[in-house]
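sorry for the late reply, my laptop died twice this morning and i had to redo everyting from scratch. anyway the thing you sent over, i finally got around to it. pasting the sequence first so we're on the same page, its 81 residues, then the predicted structure underneath. double check i copied it right bc i was rushing
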Amino acid sequence: MSYGNDFVLTLFTNDSELARRADEAGINRIGLDLEMLGKAERQQHLNTWISDHTEEQLPSLRQALKKAKLLCEPTSPPRFA
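ok and here's the structure:
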C-alpha cells in the first residue's frame, strides 16, 4: 500500500476496542510497540513512553481491524547473517 504524500495516521495500542474504533475512524496503521530491548537505558534521560505491549496481544488486535494495516514495532533490530 502506498500513501504517497498523504499523512499516515498511526496508533500504537494494545486495546482491541480502541483499535476497532480507530479503524472505523480512518487511522491508517494500528499496532503494538514491542521495541523495548535497551529502550529504557537509551532513553533514561528523556520523558518517553515505554510500552507494556506483548506479542500475545497481536491476534486480538488483528481481529479488531477491517481497513487499517496491522503494525508491529519489532522487539530488537533485525539480525543479518
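The chain has one domain: 10-73.
thats about all i looked at so far, will dig more tmrw
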